[in-house]
Amino acid sequence: MHTADIAASVLLLGIIVVSLLSNVVVLICFLYNPEIRKQVPGLFILNLTFCNLLLSVSNMPLTLVGLITKGHPGGSGFCQIVGFLDTFLTTNSMLSMAALSIDRWVAVVFPLSYHSRIRHRDAVIALGYTWVHSLCFSTVATCSSWVGYHQLYASCTLCNVRANGAGTQFIIFTVLLHSLTFLLTLIVLCVTYLKVLKVARFHCKRIDVITMQTLVLLVDIHPSVRQKCLDEQKRRRQRATKKISTFIGTFVVCFAPYVITRIIELFCPGPISPHWGVLSKCLAYSKAASDPFVYSLLRHQYRKTCSHLANKVLKRSPLNSSSRRVENSTVSLNVIHFISHAD
């Protein structure tokens, strides 16, 4: 194997492991915590987790096999099934991210009427649309025999080699697919999250004004306390920007190279480096590994659930640990009291 192939194989193996573990943890948190199940975003996250898990156990391992063996992983029929899943799961996960961004936009912009605007029924309808949308594109590609093993990506996916007899139709289909999945989702993410950022900055400014007025009134306040308040203002403004940048940035970094490569492949007859093709595919796969951290595991509710599950597995409880600390402090006080009386 070439050094670049070994590096790509190690990278893909790491993505598979991280994706499987992190998405399984998200699924366990969803099943364990009833509060998460009651929330509307939990349905979108569950759908996204389902797509990522299925992608991790079906498409990623076969791409790894294709990288190692440099050959066709399985028969033609099997590869078509995997290619169908590749188109369906990728499209479904992108649209789930768009649905999550719309949900958060409504929650921030219309906080008082959020529960009347976004209900579980609305979430189910939105998820139904993502499934129909994804099934339409993946079914058309499979029935038209445009799915097969693509050497450039070492994957069973859309393959222009199999569409020689229908070149124009395949080009139109591919452009429509990426326009109504990647481009549509990117536009929705940018519009919704930038509006969320605008609202967040507006509230931060209001809080900053109140804070500054309070600091002016508190003449005797210590300079270090005043500086801490100013630093907290700065951190608050940066926190919102970082979150929005993470949502949009991870989507662009992971999917844009692969989509751009697919479009270039349609219109440029020149050869594309297979190392770049595999790398772009690995970047697309890495979104499945990053999604649990971007949308779930770094949130307080999921962290709390993970901590509770870890304590339960280790047969500890926060109550026992806190009572143990109280007991230790009581013993220490008794020892000090005894020594003082002894003196």
Automatic annotation (TrEMBL):
Species assigned in the record: Myripristis murdjan
Described purpose of this protein according to its UniProt entry: Orphan receptor. Displays a significant level of constitutive activity. Its effect is mediated by G(s)-alpha protein that stimulate adenylate cyclase, resulting in an elevation of intracellular cAMP.
Start and end residues of each G-protein coupled receptors family 1 profile domain: 22-295
PROSITE patterns from the UniProt entry: G_PROTEIN_RECEP_F1_2
Keywords, sorted A to Z: Cell membrane, Disulfide bond, G-protein coupled receptor, Membrane, Receptor, Transducer, Transmembrane, Transmembrane helix
Bilayer-spanning residue ranges: 6-32, 44-68, 94-114, 126-149, 169-196, 244-264
GO BP terms: adenylate cyclase-activating G protein-coupled receptor signaling pathway
Superkingdom of the organism of origin: Eukaryota
Protein name as catalogued: G-protein coupled receptor 26
